[in-house]
Design goal:
Layout: H1 4-31, H2 41-69, H3 74-94, H4 103-128
Helix pairs in contact: 1-2, 1-3, 2-3, 2-4, 3-4
Length: 130
């Protein structure tokens, strides 16, 4: 079985994962830090931006691929995928130590939460025929 809709979003998300990882690696290298953030706020922000990505994306993609395998309507998969992608692009720009309520942080987390809830709803409807 092919999971074309999920793959459409998994690929750009994988690229974003690598970009966020690279930013952490470059910052660690320039500061000569192997583990942790050495008290550097900029490095800590980059670590959390990458970490938050890792906390959200696998779960939502797993939910999406199961829903797609259950024959969920493509439009609902696109809703989850688009929300997740938009949210994960916006979030790193808003996750800063100086502003916990940055609008892009709120957009990023809200979009990711809505993506997960939508994918969960797809699973409920496709798995239990509701």
């Amino acid at each position: 079985m092919l999971f074309r809709v999920t793959a459409l979003y998994a690929l750009p998300l994988a690229v974003l994962f690598l970009v966020l990882w690279f930013r952490v690696t470059v910052a660690r290298s320039s500061l000569k830090v192997s583990i942790g953030d050495a008290g550097d706020t900029g490095l800590h922000e980059k670590i959390r931006q990458h970490g938050n990505f890792v906390e959200w994306v696998p779960l939502v993609l797993i939910l999406m691929v199961i829903a797609e395998g259950n024959k969920a309507d493509a439009i609902w998969l696109h809703v989850s995928g688009a929300l997740l992608l938009i949210g994960r692009i916006a979030h790193p720009f808003g996750l800063t130590a100086v502003n916990a309520a940055h609008p892009l942080r709120i957009v990023g987390n809200t979009a990711s939460l809505l993506a997960a809830l939508n994918a969960m709803a797809c699973l409920v409807f496709t798995s239990f025929g509701l």
